Amino acid sequence: MEQESIRILIADDHSVVRNGIIKSLTSSFPNAEFGEAGNAIEVLQIIKQAKWKLVILDINMPGRSGMEVLKEIKTNYPLIPVIIFSMYPEDQFAIRAMKAGASAYLTKDISSRELEKAIKSILNGERYFTPSIAELLTNELRENKSKHSHEILSDREHQVFLLIASGKNVSDIARELLLSVKTISVYRSIILKKMSLKNNSEITHYAFKHNLVE
Fold first, then answer.
1. pTM value?
2. Where do you find CATH 3.40.50.2300 in the chain?
3. Closest of 127, 132, 118, 120 to residue 90, by C-alpha
4. Under 8 Å CB-to-CB from 109, ≥6 apart: which residues?
5. How many CB atoms are closer than 10 A to CB 81?
6. Residue 108's closest CA among 89, 93, 95?
7. Interval 64-82 mean pLDDT
């Protein structure tokens, strides 16, 4: 009896990354059918067109962030598992992603073998935790204390906060996120107000103090 095909949607704004993922998975999942999306709008359009078994989603999508797309997918298609595939270290976004419904949070430097292992676990109805993410979740449960200032930021605010803390200016961030300089400036103002900080230097100091950037 022929095995049922598995539809996997790869969402990343870089075609090289999408092709690399597909190439690395083809031998392990010979019956898989792969779809591709390059931005948030495409993801949400394509996901309506077929019964997807899995979405592999970049967190840094043009326009709307991957975190926003994740939340919309989990609201409208709660049974479709989503892997967040990110260039950001686990301690920056993993907890947020898992709380928002992601089945796994994987960084882009993982091996093909670990990606394959994660997908097999998720297709079997499980969530996949790397050892370091399991430790992060355990530590958060242990702490049981009031939120740090950065934890009250929205996902997009948090993303802009980290980029400012890494030394990028408003124009650089606008280009990277494909948003206007004015929009990023508004986010910066909100971040400063929410966190009771005065300027970029204080943002950077806060981020280093709390080990949010290297």
1. 0.72
2. 6-141
3. 132
4. none
5. 25
6. 89
7. 92
